[in-house]
Specification:
Order of helices and strands: EEHEHHEEHEEHEHEHHHH
Distance between the termini: 42 Å
Radius of gyration: 19 Å
Number of strands: 9
Number of helices: 10
Shape: globular
Mean pLDDT: 94
Length: 265
């Protein structure tokens, strides 16, 4: 039977969803059940017109120790095909979080190991407490950070990946900020909620459609050669959004010196 207390999803009256890993007794390690619940919650958030932004966080001292040991032991005894299917679900989780049609904020305290670094890399904005520690620890047990690698390498770059994928040495929140994985470091974990509230206040001022389109734009142009196809695509995107309902409302509100209708304050 699925334990629905292991992953919590709550949406407040301002449309801010909180998706919380709730296994502090095992340092919020995740297994196949937790992965499936996270995927289900992300689907729910994606489909909801009431949700304006998502905060990913965890209860307890540590953000997440990565893969659950009992789960890894089970997987080691399974066939190659079963392992392929299992890895596919983790890959689906990462891609759903990475491409979610709402802004995402990751709050990291304590340890973020293995796949947890992937979760952070898939968030749009990451805030870490000063004592947070990150580690791509897979090679220590003969594995590799495979399905999280596209997102982690994009976040910290190939050069840092070549060091930390191979050494499995931990790095600090400040280092993670220097690498680009983390956007802001706060003094203590108690300050993470305040920092998140500051960001959600800013995000709620913005067009939901505009933020979604901006996120898609980043993926469309990132690492691409600036050629006629890319230039034409960007022109098409701005033309499309200018004539959209929210684009028209935003321009009208600006010219009329009033708040657009997506600001409900």
């Amino acid at each position: 039977m699925t334990d629905t207390t292991r992953v919590l999803l709550e949406v407040d009256d301002q449309g801010i969803a909180q998706l919380t890993l709730n296994r502090p007794e095992v340092h919020n390690a995740f297994d196949d059940d937790v992965i499936n619940q996270l995927i289900s919650c992300l689907k729910e958030v994606s489909d909801s017109t009431a949700v304006r932004a998502l905060i990913l966080r965890s209860n307890g001292k540590n953000f997440s120790a990565g893969a659950d040991l009992a789960w890894m032991k089970r997987m080691a005894q399974n066939s190659h095909q079963e392992n392929l299917e299992d890895a596919g679900r983790l890959a689906e989780l990462m891609e759903r979080l990475n491409s979610l049609n709402k802004p995402t904020i990751g709050l990291v305290q304590g340890a973020a190991y293995g796949g947890a670094v992937g979760l952070a890399a898939c968030c749009d904005i990451v805030i870490a407490s000063a004592e947070a520690q990150f580690c791509l620890s897979e090679v220590k047990i003969g594995l590799i950070p495979a399905v999280i690698s596209p997102y982690v390498v994009r976040a910290i770059g190939e050069r840092q990946s070549r060091r930390y994928f191979l050494t499995a040495e931990p790095f600090s929140a400040e280092q993670a900020c220097d690498f680009g994985l983390v956007h802001e470091v706060v003094a203590t974990s108690e300050l993470l909620s305040d920092a998140a509230a500051r960001f959600t206040k800013q995000l709620r001022k913005n067009s939901p459609q505009g933020m979604h389109a901006a996120k898609e734009l980043i993926f469309a142009v990132s690492s691409k050669v600036i050629n006629p196809a890319v230039i034409d695509d960007t022109a098409q995107r701005i033309a499309d959004i200018r004539v959209s309902a929210e684009g028209q409302e935003g321009l009208s509100a600006f010219l009329e010196k009033r708040k657009p209708n997506w600001i409900q304050e």
